[in-house]
Amino acid sequence: MTDLDPTADGHQVRGRLLRIFGLGFGLAVVIGGTIGSGILRNPSVVAAGFVDTRLILLAWLAGGLFVAIDAMPTVELGAAIPLSGGPYSLAARSIGPFTGFFVGWADWLQLVMSTGFIAVAFGQYVQRLGIMADWSTAVVAILLLIGCGVLNWIGARVGGASQNIGSALKALVLVALVITLFVAAKPEAAAAPPPPLFTWVAAAVALRAIYGAYGGWQAAVYFSEEVHQPERNIARATFAGIALVTALYVLVNAAVLHVVPVGILVNSTLAVSDAAAMVLGPGSGTIVTILAIICVATIANLQVMEHVRTTYAMARKGMLPPGLATVSASGTPRAALVVVLVCIALVITGATFIKGGLYEVLLNLYAPNIMIIFLLLSYGALKLRRTEPDLPRPYKMPFYPLPALVSIVINGILLVLFLTTDLVTSIWSIIFLALAVPLYFLGRSRWRAA
User: Fold this and answer.
1) Angstrom distances, CA of residue 316 to CA of 224, 311, 324
2) Burial track 14-28 (b if 16+ CB lie within 10 A, e otherwise)
């Protein structure tokens, strides 16, 4: 066990995270945290919204540019406040302890729910290959969680190495698929229905799909205490990762549009798979399914790592039981890891008993949390400029304060659209987020001075 951690607030906890990762790991988590099943499924949704090939590609490019702007306030905070724990640590320092806890709780909720459903998607993809087809999908999903838990229990180096490998694999397979679609013999033109007419409603749905496909770019800020020179490498990893993902997304869509007419693409449920089938035959579906398995498994492993760091950071500051901030000699907060895995497994198990509309509500509960988190972090960057103007800022957002204001406006619009168009999910989201109030005061009274 390592020495006591002196950074704890109000008490000391045993052990500390290890500074063992470099810029390559930061790139891997940004790329691995962003590229998921969204790029395999969402091209058809975006095509339905923008209908013209050039507009479709421009929309994906614009999505990457917005994400880069959206990232600027968060990266400024991450470089100035190099603490692990992601949005929680940044909001707590820049805005205050309650808002920090609220952001941490919102992030904790979205991680437990999204990781649970990502694991379920993994189970479905595995069973599509005929593997463990007679098993419950929930059991297959929990087996993935156990695998992630074992890797991270062994130590931070092993968990990080698995993330590096998974991210590299998914990027290489996507690049190979893009090359294949471009160089393979283009199928004979078939009679395709005309593209749908442009509507603002479809365009709004398309923009939401693009926003979702780029989600995960903030992964590097969860590991600030474990990355060498975080004041420089967090910014480098985040923006380089966003640039690489944007380029890859535009290329994937260009490759798909190269072989699939827009009129056919808009009716596809798995656009990349359908494009591959047109040039390689039906057997290509196995390749795309394997790619999907790599994508979701890598994201599940990363989100477990992020979730553990958030839990650790909140416990270290007395917001959760201090025992959850205990770190093993190999750099893993093992108690936090166990709690995180159990909570995700409970979400997966509970989802198997939910039918109909409520299942869809749970599936989308975490959606508004992301918008709230980045809206508040952008506000936090503005506030910290006023309250701590002399704080060293190794990275400063260009054209201050425009990036933060753009982020606040866009995330605010997306949040309002979500809350007003999905009333049932909105009510459940508000209920879960409101639990932050009693939990905050419980933490202050029970663990703050522990």
Assistant:
1) 15, 9, 8
2) bbbbbbbbebebbbb
What tens digit of pLDDT does each residue of 302-328 get?
999 999 999 999 999 889 998 999 999
> With contact defined as beta carbons under 8 Å apart, do 259 and 275 qualify?
yes
Specify the pLDDT at position 62.
95
Query: What percent of the chain stands above pLDDT 70?
Result: 90
Q: pLDDT band at residue 3, thresholds of 50, 70 and 90? A: low
Who's near 77: CB < 8 A, 6+ residues apart? 90, 93, 94, 221, 377, 380, 381, 384
> Which run of H or E residues covers position 99?
helix 97-128
Q: What is the pLDDT of residue 356?
A: 47
pLDDT exceeds 90 at position 66: yes
Rounded Cα gap, residues 326 and 338, in angstroms: 12
Taking the CB of residue 35, how many other CB atoms lie within 10 A of it?
A: 28
Residue 361 above 70 pLDDT? no
Residue 204 one-letter amino acid: A
User: The tokens of 319 are what?
Assistant: 């917001």
Query: What is the predicted pLDDT for the residue at 264?
Result: 86
Distances (CA, A) of 9 to 222, 317, 328, 443: 19, 5, 20, 13
Nearest to 104 by CA among 87, 124, 128, 80: 87
User: What are the domain boundaries of the chain?
Assistant: 21-444
Residue bearing the bigger pLDDT, 194 or 392: 392
Instruction: Specify whether the CB–CB gap between 33 and 297 falls below 8 A.
Output: no
CA angle at 297 for the pair 291 and 301, rounded to the nearest 5°: 145
For the 21-444 domain, the top CATH level (class) is mainly alpha
Q: How many CB atoms lie within 10 A of CB 386?
A: 7
Spatial distance between the Cα atoms of 333 and 359, rounded to a whole number of angstroms:
32
Give the three-class secondary structure for 227. Answer: strand
Condensed to tens digits (0 to 9), the pLDDT of residues 391-414 reads 999 999 999 999 999 999 999 988
Determine if the pTM surpasses 0.70. yes
